[in-house]
What we know:
This protein is an alpha/beta fold. The protein has helices spanning 16-21, 46-55, 67-78, 96-106, 120-135, 140-152, 164-168, 174-182, 206-220, 236-249, 262-268, and strands spanning 4-9, 25-27, 30-33, 36-39, 61-63, 83-88, 111-115, 155-160, 185-192, 195-203, 228-233, 256-259, 272-277. A hairpin with a 2-residue loop joins strand 3 and strand 4 (36-39). Helix 3 (67-78) packs across helix 4 (96-106) and helix 5 runs antiparallel to helix 6. The two termini are 29 Å apart.
Amino acid sequence: MANLKIVTDSSCTMDKNLRDELEIHMVPLSVMIDGTIYQDDDNLSGEQFMNMMADAKELPKTSQPPIGEFVEFYNELGKDGSQILSIHMTKALSGTVEAARQAANISHSTVTVIDSGMIDQSLSFAVIRAAEMAQAGKGLEETVTEVENVLSHSKLYIGLSTLENLVKGGRIGRATGMLSNILNMRVIMELTNNELVPVLKGRGVKTFNKWFEGLKKDLRNNPNVQKIGISYAGGLEQCEKFKRELQELFPSMDIFLLHTTPIVATHTGSGAFAIMYY
């Protein structure tokens, strides 16, 4: 049994089989749709959630795990003497990491909490690496150093067909959202320094394609790319094209194309995608 156990939250998009194989522990957030609360776990698929959100009267609301739930989780995991490394999504989008920190101070177990500054598969890059090191018997200090290295070299870009969900959820300024909606703009944003920063705006899908051509050029000239992930919230066809073209650049790389989680999709809205790499 590993002396170090890895915890993350349900904003961390990854292949379930890989998650189970690496013994990664997932604390689910919750999402409320028209007054009914659902756990963001394996019982609520991303595809199922998109249909529910489309039919909902109001934008779903997301909730971080209660501190007490974290405390119980940590106590149970650490009762065999294991240390716990808990890696969570950026504080820019949720108070989850702060709840984890407060719980770590209360728990009987030894818990180290990291704000990844990331979300989705860019969060999973660090979580997977931590789990690999834990299974290899590496200690907490060495694993934390490697996680911080992965995060410092990670990039996340998100393409949005609408800013309505981000504006309604209070994640970006209302004026920016109104402008983009009125002009039917497409927006590419980068998650950097715990903030979503617009990098390109334009009308129509050609905006996404123009940006993607620039991304391919950057990646082609970067010999140090280790992993690439593509996530989507509806609109699979465009992301399949992205994967095909990236796979041509990196034929031996296992590029995951995954539907994002309900927590992420709530903020991005339908037709969104993200491309992440380190």
